[in-house]
């Protein structure tokens, strides 16, 4: 098994670079001091970092899983503005003992996540380090719509999510307990499956506020409520629970956990948005509550939820 | 001394964010899923990472020094395309034992480097880690000029640099030997001083190829020669040696080292460019040689230089 250190930077880049996706927006790609991209509309930009043993574990995730997740959580941030992602810059820091297989897998995961959306990796940096760090900056462009922030929900809006929740947390529970009872849930944790494009669709349907669910519905909906200065009231009976979360909870003998995971589990990365009325919510979205006048908090079934949500490995 | 871990992420961000510079290009700043920027022309983007004990040492550098260097080496990459830098995304990973003072210093250094150029920090990410990692993605825009790559030098061009060389290496030599003989050189190592804007100026004067000198003239000029498919012939007598490098070399009793540092020392980040004729080289630039037909290599005084250039701490 060849390692990062044995191969050397130039040889590694020569293997890594051809596996990366490219984008039609690219005017000049990797290899010079900077890349050059065309931007239609305004530039939308976001950064997320994954650190070994904090955001992923090598005994659970392959390089491709880490690449997929690094890409997907950043694409979701761009989509959450109602913008179209176009390109990533990727920084990889890794110990010299890291298998080359991990690094090439990382490129494959980035490509698998990006290619269906026409997103390219246009540059980045590579360094030695004592643990693996993958920092991704995603860029996108607005296409004639205003960016949708978290701050513009209005009292009377309906609140909706673009996908079923709790799957990633159900996978995390299996891995952390060492009991693999449902492969789909494990996969949802290792490779989150937000529907990229749902955010743009919401923007085109008149969404007033939006974000992606990275830290769990309870924590993230409270953030949106605070940013918009109103209360979000969620009816838990209407929250879509992912079937894989339900199956996992039942197999673990704790069927009630499925709803708890859907409410407080993180890393699903589905869109959460508010719309001016139920009739404009796009197909495939689930209405889970409403925005009402109030002190900028979240209520679930009329009460403040106890669980503060996802805290990665803490 | 309060640490990163004691303070917690939210409190730290509340202290950190107000110290960061902002930019007129900002439509939406930090705090949402993504930032939004206006882009005039095409987007130019580059990423550089600094890893503790590989690119900097805490016994040498303050947080402000690290922030300055992280910003400046990225601004130089944008300038090296003949583009105008506008914004940074900054990722900080740090152990929970990191003093808050370091983190706030980092923000100050970023601001000091960026503010004179109207560059803002528009977003980023923060995470725990077992060592400090600062990853910066810089964005800029072309202003009616084509991006200047490394690949378009032509035989017959003159080769020039935008500043005196060897200062950073002279500072590094002092620190690594534990003999502080010249404060200016040490400062040039801790806080590189490329003239941001020299790249745009070169582009407006018709530069054919350009890059910034991060790994030393010997190594970087060879890269430009290879990318352009011609030979670069440098006359060492014309290479501008920084006075602080000369003073350091003399104080250390090895006056000949000054030229060696100017030729092979890294991290000065001054621009290296080729121009179609001597008459168009902007004021303040130094002509050091010419591009000639040949096999894509560098010659110094007619010979291939032995020293392969800067290798950080290796």
Topology:
2 copies of one chain form a homodimer.
Chain A (H helix, E strand, L loop, with lengths): L3 H4 L1 H8 L9 E3 L6 E3 L5 E9 L11 H17 L4 E11 L5 H15 L5 E9 L4 E9 L16 E4 L5 H11 L5 H8 L7 H7 L4 E4 L4 H12 L2 E4 L8 H9 L5 H8 L6 E5 L10 E7 L5 E3 L14
Parallel strand pairs in A: 4-5, 9-12
Antiparallel strand pairs in A: 1-2, 3-6, 4-6, 7-10, 7-11, 8-10, 9-11
Index terms:
Thiamine-monophosphate kinase (chains A, B), 12 strands, disordered C terminus, 4-stranded mixed beta sheet, Phosphoribosyl-aminoimidazole Synthetase, Chain A, domain 2, homodimer, 60s Ribosomal Protein L30, Chain: A, PurM-like_C_sf (chains A, B), globular, 6-stranded mixed beta sheet, 10 helices, magnesium (chains A, B), kinase (chains A, B), 314 residues, alpha+beta
CATH superfamily of the largest domain in chain A: PurM-like C-terminal domain
| Domain tally of chain A | 2
Helix/strand structural class of chain A = alpha+beta
- What is the CATH class designation of the largest domain in chain A? Alpha Beta
Catalytic activity (chains A, B): thiamine phosphate + ATP = thiamine diphosphate + ADP
Binding site for substrate (chains A, B): 55, 267, 310
GO molecular function, one term (chains A, B): thiamine-phosphate kinase activity
Domain PurM-like C-terminal (chains A, B): 155-295
Brief synopsis:
2 copies of one chain form a homodimer. With 314 residues, the first copy, chain A, is an alpha+beta fold. Chain A is built from 10 helices and 12 strands.
């Amino acid at each position: 098994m060849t390692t990062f250190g044995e191969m050397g930077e130039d040889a590694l880049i020569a293997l890594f670079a051809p596996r990366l996706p490219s984008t039609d927006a690219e005017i000049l790609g990797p290899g010079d001091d900077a890349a050059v991209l065309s931007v239609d509309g305004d530039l939308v930009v976001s950064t997320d970092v994954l650190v070994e043993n904090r955001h992923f574990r090598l005994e659970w995730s392959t390089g491709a899983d880490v690449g997929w997740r690094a890409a997907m959580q950043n694409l979701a941030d761009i989509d959450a503005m109602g913008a179209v992602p176009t390109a990533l810059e990727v920084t990889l820091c890794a110990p010299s003992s890291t298998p080359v297989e991990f690094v090439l897998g990382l490129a494959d995961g980035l490509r698998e996540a990006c290619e269906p959306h026409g997103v390219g990796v246009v540059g980045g940096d590579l360094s030695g380090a004592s643990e693996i760090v993958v920092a991704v900056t995603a860029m996108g462009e607005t296409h004639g719509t205003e960016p949708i922030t978290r701050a513009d929900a209005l009292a009377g809006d309906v609140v909706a999510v673009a996908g079923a929740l709790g799957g990633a947390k159900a996978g995390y529970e299996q891995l952390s307990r060492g009991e693999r009872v449902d492969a789909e849930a494990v996969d949802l944790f290792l490779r989150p499956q937000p529907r990229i494009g749902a955010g743009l669709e919401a923007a085109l349907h008149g969404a007033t506020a939006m974000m992606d669910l990275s830290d769990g519905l309870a924590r993230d909906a409270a953030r949106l409520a605070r940013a918009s200065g109103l209360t979000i009231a969620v009816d838990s009976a209407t929250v879509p629970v992912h079937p894989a979360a339900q199956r996992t909870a039942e197999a673990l003998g704790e069927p009630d956990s499925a709803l708890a995971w859907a409410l407080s589990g993180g890393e699903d990365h589905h869109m959460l948005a508010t719309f001016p009325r139920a009739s404009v919510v796009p197909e495939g979205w689930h209405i889970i509550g409403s925005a009402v006048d109030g002190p900028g908090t979240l209520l679930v079934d009329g009460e403040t939820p106890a669980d503060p949500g996802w805290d990665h490995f803490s």
